[in-house]
Amino acid sequence: MNITGTLREKLLGFQKNEITEHHIYSKLAEKVKSPENRRILEDIADDELRHYRKWQEYTRHDVEPDRLRIWKYYLISRVFGFTFGLKLLEKGEEGAQDSYGSLRETIPEADAIAKNESEHEMALLELLDEERLRYTGSMVLGLNDALMEMTGVTFAVAAVSFLIGYTMRAFLGVNV
Fold first, then answer.
1. Is the pTM of this model over 0.70?
2. Which residue of 61, 147, 151, 169 sits 20 to 30 Å from the alpha carbon of 115, by its own alpha carbon?
């Protein structure tokens, strides 16, 4: 099949996305403690590499991964937690499904790749059971209590300052 113009550019973009996600999932798999989660991430990384190679058959071109995006997702996952990083990646999987679906007429394998991306999304959702996430509700309630306490203290300090100032002006005979 001869690929030219806009379709070629679209496939090169898909190819870059697949190789980038391969590296992201591989890097995350290295840092995950749970052997089951590691296996799932490694499987997804392998699928992404297969997708990259499938698009490469059409483009006949090697594409470098987006190193900045790899590090961005890696750092987000390390700083904000594995769950947060996976939620962001899952959004990318949804977008890939839609994009690949538009190629069904032109490229028969696009449908299979779209289905595979859907499976990735489901696997990622199953992974979203992180210990930090279990306690998020408690953390939010604790932060809410702290905010209310600080608001009360701030209001009390402001009220006392106002009353002291008002009393001093009245005592000194300053027009209030």
1. no
2. 61
